[in-house]
Amino acid sequence: MTAAPRPSPEECKVLPAGALRDRFAVVTGAGSGIGRAVTLRLVELGASVMGVGRRAERLAETAALAGHRFTYRALDIRHEPPDFLAELAELDLLVNNAGGQFIAPAAEISRRGFDAVLDLNLTAQAALLQAARPGLAARGGRVVNLSLSAPDRGIPGLVHSAAARAGIAALTRSLARQWPAIKLFCLAPGTVLTAGVGEELPPEELAGIVERTPLGRDTSLDEVAEWVAALGCGIADAVSGALIEVDGGSGLVAAAALAG
Ligand SMILES: CCCCCCCCC/C=C/C(=O)SCCNC(=O)CCNC(=O)[C@H](O)C(C)(C)COP(=O)(O)OP(=O)(O)OC[C@H]1O[C@@H](n2cnc3c(N)ncnc32)[C@H](O)[C@@H]1OP(=O)(O)O
Ligand SMILES: NC(=O)C1=CN([C@@H]2O[C@H](COP(=O)(O)OP(=O)(O)OC[C@H]3O[C@@H](n4cnc5c(N)ncnc54)[C@H](OP(=O)(O)O)[C@@H]3O)[C@@H](O)[C@H]2O)C=CC1
């Protein structure tokens, strides 16, 4: 199968200049991969961004690229209380991007391993949402939770992460009902060829997963960044609670078939 050509970075930039002027966003995991790309696009569109992550040196690299409208806090969302969010009187956009897991057969995942992945991808993110609620509600704010596509269909090798991501999708829908002043979304980007995913799977396995998606393609960083920015804009005003899969159609295919 011949895949459709990917849009160029410039073709992905569909939002007008200044679309996020005067907006204030918090992006977790802003020191690498998707979080950095999202941060740079939000800043380019006029927003001010506070980035969060454990490694200050990675956040400082993002700061050097983003310029003066980017500040950062080096902290661990699993082990530190989300006071930095509770202190914000006003917040337009929270991008819950920090996350991840390890790939292992279910039988080899210990209780501590399961807890660590549930904590990072569900419980810690729920705590961030609770802390951010007043600031978000004050501004009619939005939340984008990064997720995996079709977590409810099962993902062999990622049972802990699939459980957490199905949980965050349910949390997103439930909060969208309970907090009508805030719009919440899950964005599932399929396979994005970041250094982070490269540490989880060797290149040949990743290439196979990408090839077996219905569209035969990965999702670019520029596409993910533009989708997140769009969810922070007026165009997303009539949407809440949705899981949006920007995944080359991989959510349509059982994960076991993708893994080969
Ligand atoms: C296939 C189809 C794909 C199909 C599709 C695949 C597409 C994938 C798309 C997703 C892409 C991404 O997410 S990209 C993001 C990539 N980056 C990451 O995922 C990195 C994130 N990882 C982390 O932050 C951490 O490692 C995290 C998982 C939270 C664990 O944090 P901690 O530091 O607290 O944990 P540790 O102290 O190291 O370990 C806690 C327990 O976990 C266990 N543990 C840790 N690594 C383990 C491992 N590889 N195998 C077993 N068990 C492990 C340890 O043994 C401990 O248990 P005991 O031994 O009992 O003490
Ligand atoms: N790449 C892909 O194909 C896909 C990725 N995703 C999801 O998108 C998100 C970003 O992935 P990607 O950019 O590829 O991978 P990265 O590994 O580059 O991103 C993870 C980010 O989260 C931060 N982070 C991890 N743990 C913590 C913590 N405890 N406290 C604070 N920050 C933390 C990391 O920074 P630091 O280590 O400095 O703390 C890092 O910046 C993840 O949630 C991932 O699961 C979803 C589907 C596909």
Give an overview in words.
This protein has one domain: NAD(P)-binding Rossmann-like Domain (Rossmann fold), CATH 3.40.50.720. The protein has 10 helices and 7 strands. The chain has helices at 9-12, 33-44, 56-66, 83-86, 111-139, 159-178, 195-200, 203-211, 221-231, 255-259; strands spanning 24-28, 48-53, 70-74, 93-96, 142-146, 183-188, 243-245. A 7-stranded parallel beta sheet has the order 3-2-1-4-5-6-7, with helices on both faces. Helix 2 packs across helix 9. The chain is globular, with a radius of gyration of 17 Å. The mean pLDDT is 95. The structure holds ligand 8Z2 and NADPH dihydro-nicotinamide-adenine-dinucleotide phosphate (NDP). Residues 100-104, 108-110, 112-113, 116-117, 120, 155-158, 191, 196-197, 200, 209, 255, 258-259 line the site of ligand 8Z2. The site of ligand 8Z2 has 25 residues, from helix 5, helix 7 and helix 10. Participates in chain elongation of fatty acids. Catalyzes the reduction of trans-2-enoyl-CoAs of varying chain lengths from 6:1 to 16:1, having maximum activity with 10:1 CoA. Has no 2,4-dienoyl-CoA reductase activity. It is found in: Peroxisome.
